[in-house]
Amino acid sequence: MLKKIPTQQVELGMFLQSMEGSWLSHPFWKTKFVLRDQADLDALLRSGVPAVWIDVSKGTDLLAEPGSPEPAAAAVSAPVDLSAEQVPEPEPEPEPPGPPTIVAPKQQARPARASMGAEMEQATQVMNRSREQITALFGEARMGNAINSEECQPLVVEIADSVARNPSALISLARLKTKDDYTYMHSVAVCALMVSLSRQLGLDEDQAREAGLAGLLHDIGKMAMPLEILNKTGALSDAEFTVIRSHPVRGYQMLKESGGVSAAALDVCLHHHEKMDGTGYPQKLKGEQISLLARMGSVCDVYDAITSTRPYKAAWDPAGSIQRMAQWTGQFDPVVFKAFVMCVGIYPVGSLVKLESGRLAVVLDLNSQNLAAPVVRVFYSTRSKLPISVQTLDLSDAAVSDRVIGRESPQDWGFTHLDEIWRKA
């Protein structure tokens, strides 16, 4: 039986069915689980979620005060809340092979985090090695040579280890690629995002690395595209766009011919441009027909693409990109997208935000317990319209009274140096 209760009355042992309020305020990436950890309960009580639905048939009920009647069960149904357990197994498809079977995500302990500053140097070294290896790998693919996915494994491990120490460091550095090396470094960025998202969804370490390899190889088909189209600075013609849209199939064929490439990597390569509403390509798969890894690949691919400078467009700011993606109804799996936001934040590293004090700041690092209270570097006053002494604030610290009241567009303020500010972490 379902019952709606105020959040402040939640106790350990209750089965959470769903939560009310904006999903961005929820402290968990999913619901539908028994609340057993005191830290989780504390996070829920601090979250601002006004009320929750509990299932008293699967967990403990609200204890009535002595002498008072037992609270009545709600007479209406709880709102539908998709969770990872509800992601169905994909139906088998005709050739080319459909998505591999992905087991339901498992809960596991998060890797120990390092500070942004502590990880930046190591992440920079990983990025430099990645650039060399991926440029060589994609160069071989462009010449028509077979892809040896085994040679990619050490790189995936390096990227996964950096993401474990601090996801924001490598992911944010990968976003700074130039338009000239976009095609290569985009794959490194998607690899890192896939690893981070896998862990957020509770996949085990082997699955996370498999997802990372799939991200690394997902755009290999672009090596079969004509350079004059791939690097064109203007809008593509209909004919050119048709050619570019063939890169998932071409990449699938290249990986298949190379042999030894996992079914997961083949699936993500072929299906990372599918959309939940069936309007994607190349097979117009819809909803349950798209595997979990391909749904993940879609979100990671789009986020890195729109936040990167490309031959034909300037990068969008990270926070604005998350806001726009949230409005694209029908494109992404809502459960996967919510988990993705938990990875990169409502205000990802590098975002320009306005504080209640009237100061502007750039985001340096995330606070996993409260996405609305990141670590920021203050540098400008909107009241005096002048730069101010640079100051680093952890907005989750009880001693800090300031808070974020919204994102700002760097273009509107004429700021072109934000990356220099946050990279000095």
From TrEMBL:
Region span, Disordered: 64-110
Start and end residues of each HD-GYP domain: 161-356
SUPFAM superfamilies: HD-domain/PDEase-like
A Pfam cross-reference name: HD_5
InterPro entries named among the record's database cross-references: DUF3391, HD/PDEase_dom, HD_GYP_dom, HDIG_dom
Signal sequence region: none
Biased composition (Low complexity): 64-80
PANTHER family, sorted: CYCLIC DI-GMP PHOSPHODIESTERASE PA4108, CYCLIC DI-GMP PHOSPHODIESTERASE PA4108-RELATED
NCBIfam families cross-referenced by the UniProt entry: HDIG
Name under which the protein is recorded: HD-GYP domain-containing protein
Gene source species: Roseateles albus
